[in-house]
Amino acid sequence: MLNQSHLIDTVAAYKKDSRKHFNEAVAALLALAWPYRKEGFVFDPSFALYDDALVLCMELSDKCEESARKRLQQAIESLEWDGEIPEDAEALESLDMAGTHLLDLLGVWIGVAAVNGWTESYTRVMVSRYLSNPFLCPEWRNIPLSTLAWGRGYARDIAEQLAIIGQGIIISGARYAEQQDEAASGATYYIRRRGSYYDCAVCDDLAGKPIPIGVPFEIPHPRCCCFPEYH
Ligand SMILES: [Zn+2]
Questions:
Q1: Which residues are in the CB-under-5-Å shell of ion ligand 1?
Q2: 134: which of 40, 141, 149, 199 is 20 to 30 A away, CA to CA?
């Protein structure tokens, strides 16, 4: 069985990893584009260093994936089972998408910085300050919405997205490994217990009922802290 608080600690540690990777990517992308800043700047194929920018985004999602895998290994180190945890293709694709959405977001910031005469370091501060909602930044209010490549159907807070996706990789991977471990030692069913007061009807409904060992542990929402008791 997994140690629940150890799992929660590794999930929290990954969040810090991903934030560090995010900040580094923002700094690198701003540095790359800084000499080219102008009103209405966009990272698109006409930008001289577009390929370099894409590489930085890919590095960001790769580093998040790597950190999530590393933290996952830490989360399950107490288990006997040492089989292969299947790759979550959907999560990896979401990490890549979050990485490239960063280009669209930063493009807008670089245009705003150019118009307002901001320094590079001040721009970094502003990106970080308004991460969860750039539209709250007064200088964003002057941008005609129709000119924004960014924002339609995207998760606004990209750092939070990177955190949630990686945390999902860790939690679902760890629960998978735990289940394999318990099945190998003869468990036949498990009972879900709620590990937090997070308001989730699915978690409420699944809690307390016996579930056969062959049924994968469901994770209905990000950072689900529910845990299984194996029998
Ligand atoms: Zn839950």
A1: 203, 224, 226
A2: 199
- Reading the block at residue 23, the tokens are 């900040």
What is the DSSP annotation of 87-141?
P-HHHHHHHHHHHHHHHHHHHHHHHHHHHHT--HHHHHHHHHHTSS-GGGSGGGG
Alpha-carbon distance 103 to 33, whole Å?
Answer: 11
Q: How far is the CA of 226 from the centre of ligand 1 (A)?
A: 4
Q: How far is the CA of 112 from the centre of ligand 1 (A)?
A: 41
Residues in the chain where the model's pLDDT stays below 50? none
- What are the start-end ranges of the H helices in the chain? 4-33, 50-75, 89-116, 120-129, 158-184, 201-206
Q: With contact defined as beta carbons under 8 Å apart, do 193 and 227 qualify? A: yes
* pLDDT (tens digit per residue) in 138-163: 998 888 777 666 666 666 789 999 99
Distance CA 124, CA 113 (A): 10
Please state whether the predicted TM-score (pTM) of the whole model is above 0.90: yes
pLDDT in tens, 81-114: 989 999 999 999 999 999 888 998 999 999 999 9
Q: How far apart are CA 123 and CA 131, in angstroms?
A: 12
Residue 216 burial class via C-beta count within 10 angstroms: exposed 0-12, middle 13-18, buried 19 and up = exposed
